[in-house]
Design a protein that fits this description.
The protein is mainly beta. The protein has strands at residues 4-6, 11-23, 26-41, 50-65, 68-72, 77-89, 92-107, 112-127, 130-135, 143-158, 163-178, 185-201, 204-216, 219-226, 229-231, 235-237, 239-252, 260-276, 279-286, 293-295. The radius of gyration is 31 Å and the shape is rod-shaped.
Length: 296
């Protein structure tokens, strides 16, 4: 849905006209999960084998949508001095997902098996079209409106405040230990994974489209732009992301040739970041008087 849409009445006279539509909405999401599993056999029992499995996970999905529009439609009639249309987006998302798991098993006589699995992820999207318009880009025919202005400034901007910061990290530790000889053996395995998917889109459009009569006696300025955030820690970016997977497996068996130890650990990280933000400043399908100076 539209955050703000401003349209003039069908006819108006004013010394100056200013329409501003802006957003500085924020989402902050922090998620976390941690699990511990412990197992121990210390006496001579019929089945002295021991095993443990621990799992931890955390995830978050965040989205900011909605058009930000400052507009005079093509059917409006306006006689004014200075006209200013400003549409600005400063929406931001901060998402942090952390997860950990730890498993430990100790057997005095038998075998020890231990595992730890963990996953952490975050997906974030800002999809906000930003537009400062006179008329309509999608009109099938020119509007019947008439605008007579001494000067006009149309600005559509995605500011440096609009950004995504996303961190996802998972860590596992598992330990297996046997203390006696014979058939005693230890085995442990770990998996840690994290993902971060982020997108910034919507498009930025400033322009005059499909209006029958537009006259600006002074200066006409049309500007569409996007700025990136400058940060001493994270660097200059519109999307800043970190994803990490850390896995540690520890095995210990009594120093005896008949004993065995084995272990494995795997860390997997996936990131995908997309900026698809078309930027245009245009005059199209317009007739009218000669302007003093035009900057697009």
């Amino acid at each position: 849905s539209d955050v703000c849409s401003s349209d003039l009445p069908k006819a108006a006279d004013a010394a100056t006209v200013a329409l501003n539509a802006s957003s500085d909405e924020r989402i902050l999401a922090i998620t976390g999960g941690f699990d511990i599993a412990l197992a121990r056999v210390s006496e001579d029992v019929p089945d002295p084998d021991v095993g443990s499995l621990s799992m931890g996970a955390s995830a978050s999905a965040n989205q900011l949508d909605g058009a930000i529009t400052a507009q005079i439609d093509g059917a409006s009639t306006l006689n004014a001095g200075a006209l200013t249309l400003l549409a600005q987006d400063g929406s931001a998302i901060g998402a942090y997902a952390l997860s950990g798991a730890m498993g430990s098993g100790t057997s005095a006589l038998g075998r020890s098996f231990n595992g730890a699995l963990v996953g952490a992820g975050t997906g974030n999207s800002i999809n906000r079209p930003v537009a400062a318009l006179i008329g309509s880009p999608g009109a099938s025919s020119p509007g019947t409106g008439s605008l007579s202005l001494s000067s006009a400034s149309l600005t559509a901007q995605r500011s440096a405040a609009s950004r995504i910061v996303a961190d996802a990290a998972g860590a596992t530790i598992s330990a297996a230990q046997v203390k006696q000889s014979g058939r005693a053996s230890s085995l442990s395995g770990d998996f840690a994974g994290s993902f971060s998917f982020n997108s910034l889109s919507g498009g930025i459009n400033a322009g005059i489209y499909n209006v029958t009569d537009v006259t600006v006696s002074g200066d006409l300025t049309i500007s569409a732009s996007s700025a990136f955030h400058q940060d001493s820690l994270l660097g200059s970016s519109s999307i800043a992301t970190f994803a990490g997977g850390f896995a540690v497996a520890v095995n210990r068996s009594q120093a005896d040739l008949s004993n065995g130890t084995g272990g494995g650990s795997l860390g997997l990280v996936v990131t995908n970041n997309t900026i698809n933000d078309g930027i245009q400043a245009r005059i199209q399908g317009v007739s009218g008087g000669a302007d003093n100076a035009v900057t697009v």
